[in-house]
Amino acid sequence: MRPFFSRIIKPWLALTAAAVLAGASQQACTKESSAKEPGAPTAQEVGRRENGVHVVDLAVTEKGFEPSPVPLKKGEPVKLVVTRKTDLTCATELVMDEYKIDTKLPLNTPVDITFTPNQSGTLKYGCAMGKMIAGTFVVD
Predict the structure, then answer these.
(1) Which of 15, 58, 110, 111 has the most CB atoms lying inside 10 A of its own CB?
(2) How far apart are CA 23 and CA 123, in angstroms?
(3) Residue span of the structural domain in which 66 resides
(4) CATH assignment of the domain containing 91
(5) Could you read off the pLDDT of 2-61 as tens digits, one per residue?
(6) Does residue 27 form part of some domain?
(7) Before 67, cis peptide (omega within 30)?
(8) Number of folded domains in the chain?
(9) What pLDDT does 140 receive?
(10) What is the rounded distance in angstroms from the CA atom of residue 126 to the CA atom of residue 105?
(11) From which residue to which does the signal peptide run (predicted)?
């Protein structure tokens, strides 16, 4: 039993311990810094700010609208830059009933859509086929 323990079990235990320690040190290295660059988005924000406008890049992929959900602020102007990157879905336009938006999305061409959320809550948008492919904004 002694040779089996020395040749098999000891190296396995050593590798397991090393993996656990490496995982713990990696978590420490990836912890977010509390210092925030001015104008940089926080961990929960998506997009960037340009002249007081929240700019969000959205992509239409085989998975749908990405990213989603996207947090927004009530009363803050939003500019969506939407690029349809696939021709394999019905999401060839973006429809948002609450803001009377119905915009065609040509393949591989960024399209700007602007609006200002005026109500808090979840705002659903999606394709013209009853929002079968959809995304959401969460407005605070």
Answers:
(1) 58
(2) 38
(3) 48-139
(4) 2.60.40.420
(5) 665 566 777 666 666 655 555 544 433 333 333 333 443 443 578 899 999 999 999 999
(6) no
(7) yes
(8) 1
(9) 94
(10) 12
(11) 1-30
CA-only gyration radius of the chain, Å: 23
In a domain, 62, yes or no: yes
- Single-letter residue type at 98: E
> Is residue 95's pLDDT more than 80?
yes
Within-domain flag for 19: no
**Main-chain dihedrals φ then ψ at residue 10, nearest 5 degrees:** -60, -50
CA distance 89 to 10: 53
Write the DSSP string, 45-100: --SEEETTEEEEEEEEETTEEES-SEEE-TT--EEEEEEE--SSSS-SEEEEGGGT
DSSP symbol at 140: -
Task: Answer whether residue 136 shows pLDDT above 50.
Answer: yes
Distance CA 91, CA 58 (A): 12
Residue 38 lies in a domain: no
Q: Tell me what pLDDT residue 31 has.
A: 31
* Structural tokens at position 125: 């948008």
Is residue 31 within 8 A of residue 99, CB to CB? The reply is: no
Q: From its phi and psi, is residue 52 left (phi > 0), alpha (psi between -120 and 50) or beta?
A: left
